[in-house]
Amino acid sequence: MKKTSLVILVGAALCIGGGAWYVYHQPAASGAAGTASPGGKGKGGQAPTSVSVVKPLRQDVPIVLSANGSVTPISSVELRPQTTSTIAKVHIREGQFVKQGELLFTLDARTEHANVEKAQAQVLRDRASVADYERQLKRNTDLLSKNFIAQGAVDTLQSQLDAARAVLAADQAALRAAQVDSSYTVLRAPQAGRVGAIGVYPGSLVQPTTALTTITQLDPIDVVFTLPESSLSGLLAAQKAGNVLVSALLADAGGQQLEGKLSFIDNAVDATSGVIKVKARFNNTQTDLWPGQYVNTQLTVRTLKDALVIPQNAIITTTSGTMVYSMAPDQSARSHKVTRVYAFGANAVVTGLNGDEQVIVDGKQNLRPGSKVRLAEKRKGADGAPASVAGPAA
To answer: 242: pLDDT confidence band, cut at 50, 70 and 90?
Structure first.
C-alpha cells in the first residue's frame, strides 16, 4: 500500500515538471520558426507596416511672398486758408471728384481787392514821377552841352531820377504782394482727387488753422505692406531683373484680385521687428481700393524650374536634419536625407531625391530603415471610385 502511494506521487511530480518545461520552452521554439510562423509575419513576428506612397512631381514652382497690406493714397492734401476771412461761397460737394485747379472755395476779398487797387495807383504815380525826371534830365543835358547850366544841376537830376526809379520798383513789389494776398481768397484744387468732409459754410469765419477739407488722390494708389528680412535679397534681385507683379486680394469683394507693380523698397530694415517696408502701385480707375483698407498681397520673386515636389507630411524632422522614407522594390523602407527648399500649402520643394522613388506619406511613424512595408488598400470615395493618395498640387 505504501509502495503504491509512492508510485502515484512520483508520477504526479513528473507530469507537473514536464508541463512546466513545455510551457517555458514553447515561445522560444515558436520564435525559432522565424518567417515560418503563421499569419505572414516578418522576422521576429513583426508584420509589415501598411503605408501609402506617392511619386514626386517635377514642375515649375513660383516662390510667392504673402503679406497683409493697407491701402495708402499717394498724396492727400488738407486744404487750409492762408488768410483770415469769411467764406463767401463753397463751390464743391462732399465726396466729389475734382480736377487739379478746379475752384473749391471763395473767401470775402473786398479788403484784398482794395489793397491791390491802392498799390496799382501808387505804381502809376511813381511812373509819372520817373517820366517827369527823365524829361528834365534830357533838357538839362541839352543845356549842359551848350554850357547854359552847370554840371552839378545835371548830376542832381540824375540822382532824383534814380531815387524815383527805386521807389517805383518798391511799389511794384508791393503791388505783387497785394495781388498774392488777393489770390489767397480763391482756393483751387492743388491736385486731382476726391473731396472729403467739408466743415465750413458760407459766412463761416476761417483762419490759417482752420481745416476746410481734404483732397485725396485715388488713382493710382499704393498698397503698403511689410516682408521679413529673409525675403530682402530675393526681393531686390527680382526688382533688379524687371517689373515685379503684385496681386491684391479683396476679401470683402468676393475674392476679387487686382494686379499692380512693386514701386518701393525701404532703405532700411526695422531693427525692432526685423521687417522691411514695401509699396506696390495699382491702377484704381474703378476705385476698388480705398484708403485705409486692408488687403492680402502676394508677389512672385522668382520661379524654381523643374523642381521636385512632395507632400509636406511625408517629411520627417529629426535632430540630424530632415528625411523621408521610400518603399524599395523589395518592400522595405529606405531613408533619404532631403533639404526643404520652399514650402507652399501642403507641398514642399525638396532636394536629395532622384524623382523615381515611391515616397511614403502615411504609416511612416514607426518605420526604421529596412522595415518591411506593404501598400495599404485604397479607400473608396463617396461615388465608389478609389480615393487618390494626397500628393503635391500641380
So the answer is: confident
